[in-house]
Write a structure and sequence with these properties.
The complex is a heterodimer.
Chain A (H helix, E strand, L loop, with lengths): L1 E3 L2 E4 L10 E2 L2 E3 L6 H8 L10 E5 L5 H9 L2 E6 L2 H13 L3 E5 L15 E6 L6 H8 L3 E12 H4 L5 H14 L3 E7 L7 E7 L6
Parallel strand pairs in A: 5-6, 5-8, 6-7, 8-9
Antiparallel strand pairs in A: 1-2, 2-4, 3-4, 9-11, 10-11
Helix pairs in contact in A: 4-6
Chain B lengths: L1 E3 L2 E4 L2 E4 L4 H10 L12 H7 L5 H25 L1 H33 L12 H11 L2 H31 L1 H7 L1 H11 L2 H5 L3 H5 L4 H10 L13 H4 L3 H24 L5 H15 L4
Antiparallel strand pairs in B: 1-2, 2-3
Helix pairs in contact in B: 1-3, 4-5, 4-6, 4-8, 5-6, 6-7, 6-8, 7-8, 7-13, 13-14
Classes of the chains: A alpha/beta, B mainly alpha.
Chain lengths: ~200, ~290
C-alpha cells in the first residue's frame, strides 16, 4: 500500500468524490471508506498491480475507484439503480472497472461475467452477510483472499455486535476458510468489523 | 458444456455466442448457471472463441456488455409508472413540513418586531398572516415571507399534479381514498409492488409506526389507523366505529392496490361494492 507519511493514498485520476490530493496522489480517507479504515486499524490484504478483484456492494464507486487505482481489474457488483448511476460514471473514466448491476445474493446471475479472482471484497447491508460471502467464494481462486466488512447492525440490531462478530467468524471458519485477521474498525466506523480470510489450496 | 457471456465452452473448443450487444444482453439474461459445480470463466477461452485478440480487448468488450446491461436495467426500473409519483409525493410532504416551520419562525420574528402583536381572538389563517408579514416588513423578513408565499403556490400546484397522477397510476386505490392519500400510502410502502403485496392489517396502520411498536413492546392499545385517518371516511366516522371503518377500508384498499398493480384500470364492479360496504359501517356519510 502506498503511504505518504502516515497518510494512505492511491495513484490515479482525482476528483472522483472531492477527495483531497497529496503530492499528486489521492488521499484515501479511513472515515469514509471501510477498506481504508482496515489499512489503518489492521493489516488487511496488500493490493497489487496484477490483482483481479470481485467487489460486492460497490455503491457509488468511492472505494471502488481507490481499489481500481491499485489493481488490474475490479468487477464491481451493485444492486440499486441510484448508486449504480454514479458507479457507471466512475467506471466510464476508469477502464479497469467492470460495473455489474446484480444482486450479490444471487451470484448465478453474474457468474457468466466474472472470472476467477484473487480478492473478494464484500460490503453489503444484508442480514446474511456470511452466507453471501461463502456463496461468492466460488469466484475466489484457491489461495485467494476474502475481506468481509461486517455490518453487525445489518445482521441483527437486537444482538450485541460482539456476538454477531463471533458468530460470523465461526461461520466462515466452518465453511472451510482460514480466518487470518478480524478487527473492529474503531474509531473510524462504529459497529463495523473487518474479517480477512484465505481460501485454502493453491500456492501459498 | 459451460456457458459464459462470450460463448459456450466445450471440451477443447468454444462456440462464440455472436450477435450485437443487445443480443448478448438477452443471452446473458437467459443463461442459467448452476453454482454447485461452478467453474469460473477463463478469459483465454474467449481467445479460443475468436471473440478478442488480447486481454485489453477482452475487458473492453466485457465492459461494453456490462454497461449496456446496467443501463437497460436502470431504465427499466425507472420506467415503472409509480417511480416518479413516489418522488413527487415525498417532495410534497417535505414542502409541507418546510412551509409550516418557516411560517412559524417568521411569525416569531414578526412578533419580536411588533411587541403589541398577538394572534389571540383573531382567526387569521397562517397563509394570510404570512402575506401580511410579507407586506408589512422590509428587508430580509419581508423577503423570506414572500418566498414562503411563492413556495406555497408551488406546493398547491404539486399537490394537484400528485392527485392527478395518482388517479392514473392508482385508479382503484384513489377512487376509494383520494389521490393524495393513495399516493402517500404508496410512498410509505415503498412503491406500488410492495403496497400490493401488503396485507390489509399492515395498510391499516401504515404511517403509525411509533404507535404500532409501542403496542407490540408495552401492550399499549393498538393503533386503529395510520395514514388512512387522513381520509374523511375515517376521521368523520363516529369514534366508536372508527376502528371498524378503518379496518374495512384497509381491507378494500389491499384489494384495490392489487387491482392497480395487476390490471392498472378502474374496476367499477369492485369499487361499487367496496364503497357500499364502507359506507354501511360509517353510518351517515354519503
Amino acid at each position: 500500500m502506498i503511504r505518504i507519511g502516515d497518510v494512505l493514498v492511491s495513484k490515479g485520476e482525482g476528483n472522483v468524490y472531492g477527495e483531497r490530493m497529496l503530492g499528486g496522489a489521492r488521499v484515501w480517507d479511513p472515515f469514509r471508506s471501510k477498506l481504508a479504515a482496515l489499512y489503518y486499524t489492521g493489516k488487511g490484504v496488500e493490493l497489487l498491480p496484477g490483482m483481479r478483484v470481485l467487489y460486492l456492494g460497490a455503491a457509488n464507486g468511492t472505494t471502488v475507484s481507490h481499489v481500481a487505482d491499485y489493481t488490474e481489474v475490479v468487477y464491481a457488483v451493485e444492486f440499486a439503480p441510484r448508486p449504480m448511476q454514479d458507479l457507471l460514471e466512475v467506471a466510464r473514466r476508469r477502464k479497469n472497472i467492470v460495473p455489474i448491476m446484480a444482486d450479490a445474493c444471487r451470484p448465478e446471475l453474474y457468474a457468466p461475467l466474472v472470472e476467477a479472482v484473487d480478492l473478494l471484497y464484500q460490503d453489503v447491508a444484508q442480514p446474511d452477510q456470511a452466507a453471501i460471502a461463502i456463496r461468492n467464494c466460488a469466484f475466489l481462486r484457491p489461495g485467494g483472499h476474502l475481506i468481509l466488512m461486517l455490518k453487525t447492525r445489518s445482521v441483527d440490531v437486537r444482538k450485541q455486535p460482539a456476538e454477531v462478530f463471533r458468530e460470523t467468524v465461526d461461520t466462515l471458519a466452518a465453511a472451510g476458510l482460514t480466518v487470518q485477521e478480524s478487527v473492529w474498525l474503531i474509531p473510524y466506523h462504529q459497529d463495523h468489523a473487518a474479517i480477512v480470510c484465505t481460501k485454502p489450496g493453491g500456492i501459498p | 458444456m459451460r456457458s459464459y457471456w462470450f460463448g459456450d465452452v466445450v471440451d477443447g473448443g468454444c462456440i462464440p455466442s455472436g450477435g450485437n450487444t443487445e443480443a448478448l444482453v438477452r443471452r446473458l439474461h437467459s443463461l442459467r448457471t448452476g453454482m454447485d459445480d461452478f467453474v469460473p470463466l477463463d478469459w483465454e477461452d474467449a481467445l479460443t472463441c475468436g471473440i478478442c485478440r488480447d486481454r485489453a480487448e477482452y475487458l473492453s468488450f466485457l465492459r461494453e456488455l456490462c454497461f449496456a446491461a446496467a443501463e437497460m436495467e436502470i431504465r427499466e426500473q425507472y420506467a415503472g409508472k409509480d417511480v416518479e409519483l413516489l418522488q413527487m409525493v415525498r417532495t410534497l410532504d417535505e414542502m409541507d413540513e418546510l412551509i409550516n416551520r418557516l411560517s412559524e419562525r417568521v411569525t416569531e420574528w414578526h412578533q419580536v418586531r411588533n411587541p403589541s402583536f398577538s394572534r389571540k381572538y383573531r382567526r387569521t389563517p397562517a397563509h394570510v398572516l404570512v402575506k401580511n408579514i410579507a407586506r408589512g416588513n422590509k428587508g430580509a423578513l419581508g423577503r423570506v415571507a414572500v418566498h414562503i408565499e411563492e413556495f406555497s403556490a408551488a406546493r398547491t400546484e404539486l399537490a394537484k399534479e400528485v392527485s392527478n397522477r395518482a388517479n392514473r397510476v392508482l385508479p382503484n386505490t384513489s377512487a376509494l381514498i383520494g389521490g393524495l392519500v393513495a399516493a402517500r400510502l404508496m410512498s410509505h410502502a415503498g412503491g406500488l409492488l410492495p403496497l400490493s403485496r401488503m396485507p390489509a392489517s399492515a395498510i391499516q396502520v401504515l404511517g403509525a409506526r411509533t404507535a404500532l411498536f409501542a403496542h407490540l413492546r408495552t401492550h399499549s392499545p393498538s393503533p386503529k389507523h395510520g395514514i388512512i385517518f387522513q381520509h374523511r371516511r375515517v376521521h368523520n366516522a363516529p369514534r366508536e366505529v372508527r376502528g371498524k371503518v378503518a379496518r374495512a377500508l384497509a381491507g378494500k384498499l389491499a384489494i384495490a392496490a392489487r387491482l392497480d398493480h395487476f390490471r392498472g384500470v378502474p374496476v367499477p364492479e369492485f369499487l361499487e361494492k367496496a364503497q357500499a360496504r364502507i359506507d354501511l359501517l360509517g353510518g351517515s356519510e354519503e
